[in-house]
Structures are given as structure tokens and as C-alpha cells.
Amino acid sequence: MSKYEWRKHAKELYLPKQKPNLIAVPEMKFFTIKGKGNPNSESFKQDIETLYGLSYAIRMMPKKGLTPEGYFEYTFFPLEGHWDLDEEGRKLDYLNKDHLVYKLMIRQPDFVTDELFDYAVNTVKNKKAPHNIDDVKFESITEGLCVQAMHIGSFDDEPKTFEVMEQFCMDNNLDRAEKTHKEIYISDFRRTATEKLKTVLRFKVTKN
């Protein structure tokens, strides 16, 4: 098959409009890692670096003379994060980022198996041996029915977009299933001006 590019072949998942829309998100494979605390912390940065390292180990296999069964060329998938608050954070009437709970993830192509995950872990361990690598999991995740929208700008301004998304739910007989939400980082927030950041916001819903 030709090179799989998520910007071309999966626009509905990664490049929605700023106007909210309803989408059924299918089962997909991910490398994931859980954590808690402020996303400006060093541990958060290390979690991201480990996920990228494992994902690149898979992506670069053919250049090392290893071509897995079913392998196809693909564009590296964007970082994603599922966000929640701990019990103490839920009691506050403002957002304290020290109470955030997260699961970071990077999608993997369908050909990735448990064996390839083990290969990636061993490859990264032999290079860096990051302390958090044993916390990474290989999971299949189905989000199901969701409302999503593209948020442009600072992460701190996301509540404005969530208000629009929740109004969309009210207008279309949908109920938000949980207070947690997913973020997909279309822009590299380490290198992009805050006002230009593009982040997909998504939460699960049910029809009422």
C-alpha cells in the first residue's frame, strides 16, 4: 500500500473543524503510560520522551534490516493524552494542575504486535534504559461515540471550547458520559507559539 499519512487518510480523527462534530472512534492500538501531577514537570517530559523512543523504534525497524510482517510506510502519529483529576482536585472550584491525572499515548499501526512491543522496549533499554519504561503498556483502546472539536490557542483557554462542545450536546440530544477528556496534540507544543497551538479536544457521549 502507499504510505499511510494520518493527515490525509484519517482527517475525521485528527483534523476536525473548530465547530464540534459527533464521531464514532474505532478500536486502535497505542503505547501508553500513566502519570499524575503538573504537565510542566520533569516526569511528564520523561513520559513523553519514552513514548516517542518506543514509537520510533518501531518506525525505524526497516532501516535496521528488520521488516515486520504486514509492515507499511506511515507517518508518525501525534501524541495524545487522556485527562482526569484526583479526588482532591475534584473538590476544588478551580483547576490545580498538581492534581491532574493523565494517560499519555501514541497510536501504533495495526501491524504492531506484543512481540514488536517487546522489541521496542528492549531496543530503548539498550540505548537509554529510562526509569519509567516498565510503566509503558501496549493497549487496544476503543473510545466509541464522542464529540470533538479543534481548539486553537493556549491550553488554559480550553474551557471556552468545551463550553461550545457541551452546547452542541444539548442541541443534539447528547449527554456527556464522563468529565474526563482526550487531547490530541496536532502541534508540537515544545516548538509552537501558544496562540497557534492546535489541539483536538474530545469526550465520550451517549444519546439520550
**Apparent shape:** globular
How much of the polypeptide forms β-strand, as a percent range?
Answer: 25-35%
Proper CATH architecture: Alpha-Beta Barrel
Mean pLDDT: 95
C-alpha-based Rg, rounded: 18 Å
Which range best describes the helical content: under 10%, 10-25%, 25-40%, 40-55%, 55-70% or over 70%? Answer: 25-40%
CATH fold-level label: Multidrug-efflux Transporter 1 Regulator Bmrr, Chain A
Order of strands in the sheet with most strands = 1-3-2-6-7-4
Q: Domains counted in the coordinates: how many?
A: 1
Give an account of the 3D structure:
This protein is an alpha+beta fold and 208 residues long. It has one domain (6-207): Regulatory factor, effector binding domain (Multidrug-efflux Transporter 1 Regulator Bmrr, Chain A, Alpha-Beta Barrel), CATH 3.20.80. It has helices spanning 6-9, 11-14, 42-59, 87-91, 114-127, 158-171; strands spanning 21-36, 79-85, 100-108, 137-152, 174-176, 181-185, 198-207. It has a six-stranded antiparallel β-barrel with strand order 1-3-2-6-7-4. Helix 3 packs across helix 5 (114-127). The longest helix has 18 residues, at 42-59. The chain starts with 5 loop residues before the first helix and ends with a strand. The mean pLDDT is 95. InterPro entries: GyrI-like, GyrI-like_CCH_Lin2189-like, Reg_factor_effector_dom_sf. It comes from Oceanobacillus luteolus. This is GyrI-like domain-containing protein.
